[in-house]
Write a structure and sequence with these properties.
Layout (H helix, E strand, L loop, with lengths): L15 H5 L3 E8 L3 H12 L4 E5 L12 E3 H9 L3 H7 L1 E3 L1 E6 L2 E7 L11 E3 L2 H12 L5 E5 L2 E8 L2 E8 L2 E12 L6 H5 L4 E16 L11 E6 L8 E6 L4 E7 L6 H4 L2 H12 L6 E15 L3 E2 L2 E3 L5 E2 L7 H20 L7 H27 L4 H14 L3 H4 L40 E4 L2 E4 L8 E7 L9 H8 L5 E8 L12 E3 L3 H5 L7 E4 L5 E5 L4 H11 L4
Parallel strand pairs: 1-2, 1-11, 2-8, 5-13, 11-18, 22-23, 23-24
Antiparallel strand pairs: 3-7, 4-7, 5-6, 9-10, 10-11, 12-15, 12-16, 13-14, 14-15, 16-19, 17-18, 20-21, 22-25, 25-26
Length: 560
């Protein structure tokens, strides 16, 4: 189907529930083996939670779909054991350029500072990512993946959910304590439950053309995102260009609402558009062609009893800004540690209400930014169009206008500033690492090797305890043991100033080798930062108080 990729086929397996006509019960069933469903299954399995993942297909996503994975998503994938292969296989970029006709009017840098492990963005076709996630899922005990097992009915109950599954060998039923729904934008399960989305459907059409090029388009080997308003090769419309893996380049052409999708997909319509853009002397091969429209909508809430929705099944945004898959991965990052605590009886079920609360707030931010981008790119009134054109006309010479150019505000991690799980500051701090913020990375040394601060957090509550080079400000062994032995354990990670010896602070200590950790957390000896299992800041203090730490953990888990 594609010249640069061979689709894998995953084996269907006949299961005991069919032969024995029994209804087995599982603690967690996930529906949908796209990036979000696979990430959720891997996350839970890494936490030691048995999980069953069902998918109605036997391969990865077909065609040109998700592409851009932001820095925060790469950090989540690192925690899931897939970050390195994604970065190695994908195309890294930080710079975006926007043009009006032939002149550049705006430029941005997604990662303007050094000292981070991951770049601002990596482009990788969704089928590559899914294959990597499937491979990782196969390495984990307790994770069962059933291909060509289609969910055809869902019956919620007070103590769980009954799921009816259809296969080539017949139907069978399963009971789940919890059902996580990741079955995509058209979500059959959402429809089965009579649930809907609220929002806006945009009346415009865009053509995706993936082309294979032997010669790169960007000068000097650079990799960037380019966006045009009203270019001479596609007058009156917009065009977006990204480089992908395997010498594939994705081009999005705005077509307008009146365009006939079937006509526009024909080769005789597509090739002249690409030729006008690339010029007559550059050979190319068509890899994929499709026409799409999009919506900016979300469910009212993401938790419905024992059923939890994530990814496109819960919210949909425009493709401008790469907010779809990135927000879906943040959904699972937020959900899985909470679900594990509830299953283990360490937190009440209302903790899962905070999954909906926090991710609905994040979805609203994404929808707002996505809608604003779409309104700028595809103005639907003459006033909006006149404003857009005036901004573009002024942007070349005036900084205030450049700030108004909106070709898609790129995905950023959600700052859960208003979450009920945060413990408010009682001490004065500068910087953005306030409760609710996703933790900042920094280069560190651990056990004689250089590494990254993020590698020492995640999957558990962690207390970063900042100390001087000589260990001044370190918590005592008694305090460290008390926190580790709590009902919900807290791992203490001492962060020593640059110049410390590797043996100072014990085996868990890391050395802030460039001083960036202390700078980014506004830390001095004695400062402590409590991190949630999803690497978000839960609380921070200038001096360690074990009782305050345990109170903050109780608040972050709804056990207070």
């Amino acid at each position: 189907m594609l010249s640069t990729y061979t689709y894998p086929t995953f084996a269907y397996r006949r299961v005991p529930e069919i032969d024995e006509a029994v209804v087995s019960r599982r603690p967690v069933i996930i529906v949908g083996a796209g990036p979000v469903g696979l990430a959720a299954a891997i996350d839970l399995a890494q936490l030691g939670q048995p999980v069953l993942l069902l998918d109605d297909d036997n391969t990865v996503s077909v065609g040109s779909r998700g592409l851009c994975y932001a820095k925060r998503s790469l950090e989540i994938l690192d925690r899931l054991g897939c970050g390195d292969p994604v970065v190695e296989r994908g195309v890294t970029w930080n710079i975006g350029r926007t043009f009006h006709r032939t002149e550049e009017v705006f430029r941005f840098d997604l990662l303007p500072e050094s000292g981070h492990r991951r770049p601002g963005m990596v482009n990788l076709q969704q089928y590559h990512l899914e294959e990597m996630l499937v491979r990782r899922a196969g390495e984990l005990p307790g994770l069962e993946l059933r291909w060509k097992h289609k969910v055809v009915d869902v019956a919620p109950r007070d103590d769980g959910v009954r799921v009816t599954v259809e296969t080539a060998d017949g139907r069978y039923a399963l009971d789940a304590d919890w059902l996580v729904v990741c079955d995509g934008a058209r979500s059959p399960i959402r429809r089965m439950m009579g649930l809907d989305m609220e929002g806006q459907v945009f009346r415009d059409r865009f053509l995706i053309a993936d082309v294979v090029l032997e010669q790169p388009l960007f000068p000097e080997g650079r990799t960037e995102r380019w966006f045009w308003f009203d270019p001479p090769f596609h007058p009156g419309q917009s065009v977006l260009l990204h480089r992908e893996a395997d010498d594939v380049w994705r081009i999005d052409f705005q077509l307008g609402w009146d365009a006939d999708p079937e006509e526009e997909k024909k080769e005789e319509r597509v090739v002249p558009r690409i030729r006008a853009m690339l010029g007559p002397g550059r050979p190319f091969e068509l890899e994929w062609v499709s026409v799409y429209t999009f919506q900016c909508r979300r469910m009212q809430k993401f938790r419905h009893g024992r059923v939890l929705f994530a990814g496109d099944a819960a919210h949909q945004v425009s493709p401008f800004g790469a907010r779809g898959a990135n927000s879906g991965l943040q959904d699972t990052d937020n959900l899985c540690w909470k679900l594990k605590l509830v299953i283990d009886g360490l937190a009440p079920g209302r903790l899962l209400d905070t999954y909906s609360d926090e991710r609905v707030a994040a979805a609203d931010e994404n929808l707002m930014n996505s809608t604003r981008s779409t309104d700028f790119i595809t103005p639907k009134s003459q006033v909006s169009k006149d404003f857009r054109n005036a901004v573009l006309g002024l942007a070349r010479d005036h900084a205030f206008a450049r700030a108004l150019v909106n070709s898609g505000r790129l995905s950023v991690p959600a700052h859960l500033s208003d979450s009920s799980l945060n413990t408010p500051d009682v001490d004065a701090f500068d910087g953005v690492m306030a409760p609710g913020a996703p933790m900042a990375d920094a280069p560190v040394r651990h056990a004689g090797r250089n590494g990254w601060l993020l590698d020492h957090a995640g999957d558990r509550f962690v207390l970063l305890a900042f100390a001087g080079a000589a260990g001044d400000g370190l918590p005592s062994r008694e305090v460290t043991a008390r926190l580790a032995d709590a009902r919900i354990p807290v791992s203490v990670v001492p962060v020593l100033a640059s110049g410390a010896d590797d043996g100072t602070g014990g085996a868990a200590a890391v050395i802030d080798r460039e001083g960036l950790a202390a700078q980014r957390y506004d830390a001095r000896p004695g400062t402590c930062v409590l991190l949630r299992p999803d690497q978000h800041v839960a609380a921070r203090w200038r001096q360690l108080d074990p009782a305050a730490v345990q109170a903050a953990v109780a608040r972050a888990t709804c056990t207070a």
